[in-house]
Amino acid sequence: MTTSSSDQLTGELARQQIERFVARFQPNYRYLACHCALPLVLTPELVNYIRVQFLLNQEVPWIAEADLLLSELCRPVGYELYAMTPAVRSNLLAQFETPEFQHKFGTNRLKSVAQLLMDYVTYLMGTHPPSRQREFQAQQWAAMVYLDQHRTEAEQEIATALQGLVNRGKNGQAELARLQRLIQEFRPQLSQYDSLMKFAESLGIWLKGQIPPDAGQSYGVHGVNLSLNPVTQLEGFPPMQTFECEVVTIGLGAGTEIELKPFDFEVATIELKPKGRLRTETELIINRHQHRAYGFTEDLGNGVELEMLAIPGGTFVMGSPETEQGHSDDESPQHQVTVKSFLMGKYPVTQAQWQAVAALPQVNRKLEPDPSYFKGENRPVDTVSWYDAVEFCERVSQYTKRPYRLPSEAEWEYACRAGTTTPFHFGETITTDLANYDGNYTYGSGSKGKYVQETTPVGSFGVANDFGLYDMHGNVWEWCADHWHSNYEGAPTDGSAWEDDPENKNENDNHWWLLRGGCWGSFPVGCRSGSRNNYNPALRRNDLIFGFRVVCGWA
Fold it and tell me: Less CB within 10 Å around the terminal CB: N or C of the chain?
């Protein structure tokens, strides 16, 4: 996809998000969203201030403030801090140029909002410690570029900050990435200043680890000379732990480091909204928003690739509460687990990937080249045993010299939940519009749907969880590294696999291994984030439901 077509798609997705937001509430909510698009970061206090100053006569209710911040137009970026994506901001701000807005608010409304924002930020800068000045400065620039009398001052300040960070070399890289993205956001207002935009483009190339063709050139911006000369001789990048950078790395231990690239995707969540005169009926609404993760692509040979995503470490509560519909005793007791960072397959292993790896040199056991019943290169491989899945990982490890393995059960649930505590990462219920399971049955307040009675191509529903993982609910059950245990009494709390000593037979007789996620034939209750299953690791189920996805990282 070309950059222009990608930008068009991003713009169209933003437009659809805005229209869904307006349709869900009322037309006047559009006015609030547009007025709140100018600040880079929103707080409840700022949204209230904007509404009171500009929209009291437009019948925008106070509840609209919360509705906006909690909608798909905004994403949380800190405690009571929210931000819109650049595409959403751009789309909303462009509406001030439409005849409808200019007739209703006049031709200078955007400048009025910018002046209010500048006054508000100036007040905050005078009442907060110096450590907060950087975040306020970016907000101030966002306002200044819309005000003719302040635009030149903003450009000079941005240029000075840029050159100072360039002179710091690697130590200023994370901040440079942030500033470069800000310049791109301000592009429509700065477009008449060619030198600043050209330097920002060169900076973007350098931040991706390449030397730009004009690296030795200087650009003059209001008396500031911008040049990449101080940094073009640097080799590589340090690890960067910031979502604003276009290049990050993840360490796998033993001195191994992988460069990760950004990946944008769509996340869907389900909202259950009361309807009807008595509000006793429920309407299922699918909300969608854009998100970003980081990952890399492993070449398996013959044009076959394996996409891996970085899963950030963290702590979560494993298991399901006794009050959850479908809860089973084997999902108790709930317990806190801390998981280290790792990489996980974006999708379940496909048949194309399986065939590529089956052709690699054997490590411990033979692999059937085409075991799946439901044929299709992009469908998940099915009808594979636990030992088959382990052999797959060992062959990929031998081929790539990276540590591939099955996920531990804790890693799988942590990755599936992606920060959620609801039965599904989608929310309180599930729908066959988002996952492949037996839609003849429902969960919670959900409704019946399709039952396709076979696997579907990976990623075909087009939505992921907040970590960027697809098909975590349904399609195929996924093998984990752990032995089966009938509850979590004594389970590890460090994210490691719970494996028994083969010489010390427990009540499970060491014959059963874990499976997670549900499959195309599962009832929705079996597809929950906390649902567990088990089977003999040496056998391949003839009902075509077992697959897996891989993890990269030391156990």
Answer: N
- Measure Cα distances from 336 to 276, 330, 331, 424, 490 in Å: 41, 16, 13, 18, 12
**Rounded CA gap, 227 and 449, in Å?**
59
Tally the C-alpha atoms within 13 A of residue 461's C-alpha that lie toward its C-beta: 27
The predicted pLDDT at position 145 comes to: 72
The strand order across the sheet containing 248-253 reads 248-253, 256-275, 281-301, 304-311, 342-345, 551-552, 404-405
List of residues 6+ apart from 241 with CB closer than 8 A = 248
Q: Which band of pLDDT confidence, cut at 50, 70 and 90, is reported for residue 163?
A: confident
The model's pLDDT over 497-539, given as tens digits with 9 standing for 90+, comes to 998 765 545 454 457 899 999 999 999 999 999 999 999 888 7
Largest CA distance in the chain: 81
- The residue type at 259: E
Q: Are 353 and 381 in contact (CB under 8 A)?
A: yes
**CA 62 from centroid of its chain's CA atoms:** 30
Higher pLDDT, 348 or 219: 348
Q: Which segments of 236-326 are extended strands (E)?
A: 248-253, 256-275, 281-301, 304-311, 314-318
Q: Length of the chain, please?
A: 555
3-state secondary structure of 388: helix
User: What gap in Å lies between CA 240 and CA 238, rounded to an integer?
Assistant: 6
Return the beta strands (E) in 65-151 as ranges. 75-78, 81-83
Query: What does 31-78 look like in DSSP terms, one character per residue?
Result: HHHHHTTSSSSB-HHHHHHHHHHH-GGGT--THHHHHHHTSTT-EEEE
* Spatial contact of 62 and 26, defined as CB atoms under 8 Å apart: no
pLDDT in tens, 136-148: 777 777 777 777 7
Strand bridging mode 546-547 / 335-339: unpaired
Output phi, psi for 137, to 5 deg.
-60, -40
Residue with tokens 């439409």: 98
Return the sign of the alpha-carbon dihedral for residues 466, 470, 476, 481.
negative
Q: How far apart are CA 369 and CA 390, in angstroms?
A: 15
